[in-house]
Design brief:
Elements lengths: L2 E3 L5 H12 L4 E2 L6 H6 L3 E2 L5 H16 L1 H7 L1 E4 L3 E6 L4 E4 L4 E3 L6 E3 L2 E6 L7 E2 L2 E5 L2 E5 L6 E5 L4 E3 L2 E3 L1 E11 L4 H21 L4 H17 L3
Antiparallel strand pairs: 1-13, 2-3, 3-5, 4-16, 5-16, 6-14, 7-8, 9-13, 9-16, 10-15, 11-12, 11-14
Bound molecules: nickel (II) ion.
């Protein structure tokens, strides 16, 4: 499932983030790439330990926690501390797949990447190219979202970033280990959750059907979740 979630950050938060990270020192993006991806990766990143990256990574994590849509779609067990990247002057990231396991710096945790996420930080009118292209069962989908919006997609997908031929594309990116490892099972839970929300919006919280369906949702999570 590929899902766009609007307005994870407010316009004021995006502006403050862009000002802070724009003034920070950037390094070659190959720092976090595996062997295959290093060969096709051409961008800049904030160093993982940089105070600006950590501070804004925490702000992004807070924002994700407040997003009912993100929580429902990702059912996160662990979220990787968000990183930040920058593409300009024709830079791109060729077709690759993200590493399956990501150690989290300063901890003993090795996160399994079930979902990949990109939070767009630049106004799409200010740059050309830079689409995130994700290959899934329905073909290749090109994603270029307003600043502050997030795309979530299965980390098992081949993907690339088209060359940025004008302007600058800033983004935050990270991975989620979901409580529900299987993408199909997670998508079913998301659909069921949305159907329950629609039912409740029309008929209210207290109907017998709302209670039963909510029970089925939780019992499926109980059956499938790893925590
Ligand atoms: Ni990637």
């Amino acid at each position: 499932m590929l899902l766009a979630i609007p307005d994870i950050l407010t316009p004021a938060e995006v502006a403050a983030c862009v000002a802070d990270i724009g003034a920070a020192a950037w390094v070659d993006g190959k720092e976090t790439a595996g062997l295959q991806s290093a060969a096709v990766k051409d961008n800049a990143q904030l160093p993982q330990g940089s105070p600006v990256a950590q501070a804004w990574g925490d702000r992004v994590l807070d924002a994700l926690g407040r997003s009912a849509e993100f929580v429902a779609a990702a059912l996160p067990h662990r979220t990787f501390p968000p990183l930040f990247n920058r593409y300009a002057g024709g830079q791109s990231f060729g077709t690759h797949i993200d590493n399956a396991i990501r150690p989290i710096r300063g901890t003993a945790i090795k996160l399994r990447t079930d979902l990949s996420a990109t939070l767009f930080l630049s106004d799409p009118a200010t740059y050309d190219g830079g689409e995130l292209v994700v290959e899934d069962a329905f073909g290749a989908q090109a994603v270029k979202l307003p600043a502050g919006s997030l795309v979530l997609y299965p980390a098992s997908s081949l993907h690339h970033v088209n060359p940025v031929t004008r302007g600058v594309r800033l983004a935050s990116f990270f991975w989620v280990q979901s409580m529900i490892r299987d993408d199909g099972a997670r998508a079913l839970l998301y659909d069921l959750d949305r159907a329950i929300q629609d039912h409740v919006a029309e008929h209210g919280q207290g109907t017998r059907h709302a209670v039963e369906l909510t029970g089925i949702y939780h019992n499926l999570v109980r059956r499938w979740a790893e925590t």
